[in-house]
Amino acid sequence: MDLTRREFVASVVGAGAALGVVGCGVADSRAPVGSTRVSSVAPRSSTGIVRRLTLRAQPITLDLAGTDVQTWGFGDSVPGAPFRATAGDRVVVDFRNDLPEATSVHWHGLAIRNDMDGVPGVTTPEAPPGGTFTFDFVVPEPGTHWFHPHHGMQLDHGLYAPFIIDDPADPGNYDAEWILMLDDWTDGIGPSPMEIMDRLIADGESGSGMGGMGGMGRMGGMDAGDVEYPMYLINGRAPSDPKTLAARPGDRVLLRIINASADTVFDVALDSHDLTVTHTDGFPVQPVTSSALRIGMGERYDAVVTLSDGVFALIAAPVGKRGMGRALVRTGSGSAPGEAIRPRELDASPLTVGALRAADSARLPQREPDSVQDVLLSGSMAPYAWTINGHTYDDTVPLTIREGDAGRLHIRNMSMMSHPLHVHGHTFQLGPAGGSGPRKDTVLLPPMGRVSVDLAATNPGSWMVHCHNAYHADAGMMTRLDYAA
Ligand SMILES: [Cu+2]
């Protein structure tokens, strides 16, 4: 829904009055309603369009192959309905929290103004139960993004949804576009996320921590995450009741793949097809064709595929764990492939971030860094604690940067677990030094892996830098990037 400026002003006055009457705890002195402040991230061009969206976090019932499970979601579905805007739009989100605990919404991948970033205690007040908050920001860059709570283990419920920012300069030319949200699922069919976290901590104290949830499903010493899940979902559907995506033979389809899981890296493949990766984390790359791709928590990959005639399994295989996330692609008649069918495309080495190079339009200006900082990722299962530069978040020493500087981070994974490292409010370009790798906001570091990234300090504030494994983050694997005064 697009509003003219006059209609927008009229409607925010109404919203402001309602906030005043409710008197909920979130309407603090920074109340953004009607604010005239603009984002410090200049959009390439402002559209002048205001998109008004409503969002409600609430308890909902999710049908998993005929079994009703109680969970939390955005709106009335898992994933929540996609948000859509065009780069340069101003987005106003009337958010209401109908959960029984406080929450806040983080707009993952959007380099927006700091006070809208949705991190309680750092950028944005939390919304208490029954509370409301109005988010108001300009969306700076096109791409495949998403949103989720930045609050304890809430992400490991059903609280996630796509946020697609269209590029007015991109004609698309796709016959169809499918958003695929991948998730590891336990809520209502296994222990709750809080119970899992308590168990990880208890196992760590007793010294039996290497098993996570009992060590089920670990294969060949691979890093299998810390948690074994009873089910893996694509677009909120169980593998035995998959979503069917319909198209015609020969159609050229854009897949927007988002890993919304808490503890699971996936390998994604479409049976009998190759995938041509065109973007990661919203930014274009030099296209690379592969039979499968590996996606860490928080990452996004866009891939184009030209469809054959038939019915094909689209599989998200959890790395190092049992089970599969599953959807079906149907372009012709015929029976669906059996649930156990595993595409041979998954047998090849999946495409990983190291194979990607930024498109010219996504490169940061080449310059020598003004500052170089280390980001050491470490931790253990016993005790269950995860650290950045040797500290858990409660006594972290933040990274620092000055506005306008070019910063380089040497990120090193000193552990035998993989960690997707996410930087808020910024995007970075992967090295080698000077940057030819892809532009991203989340980078998956395999066990003992290392990468150097460059970022431009153009968005002042105090920003989270953290592992996107929800259990690692909650166990301390977070720090901040603070702008020097
Ligand atoms: Cu981690």
TrEMBL record:
Keywords per UniProt: Copper, Metal-binding, Oxidoreductase
Lineage of the species this protein comes from: unclassified sequences, metagenomes, ecological metagenomes
Protein name: Unannotated protein
Species of origin: freshwater metagenome
Presence of the UniProt keyword Oxidoreductase in the record: yes
Residues of the Plastocyanin-like domain: 65-169, 231-317, 374-481
Entry GO MF terms: copper ion binding; oxidoreductase activity
InterPro entries associated with the record: Cu-oxidase-like_N (IPR011707), Cu-oxidase_2nd (IPR001117), Cu-oxidase_C (IPR011706), Cu-oxidase_fam (IPR045087), Cu_oxidase_CS (IPR033138), Cu_oxidase_Cu_BS (IPR002355), Cupredoxin (IPR008972), CuRO_3_CopA (IPR034279)
Membrane spanning residue stretches: none
Coiled coil: none
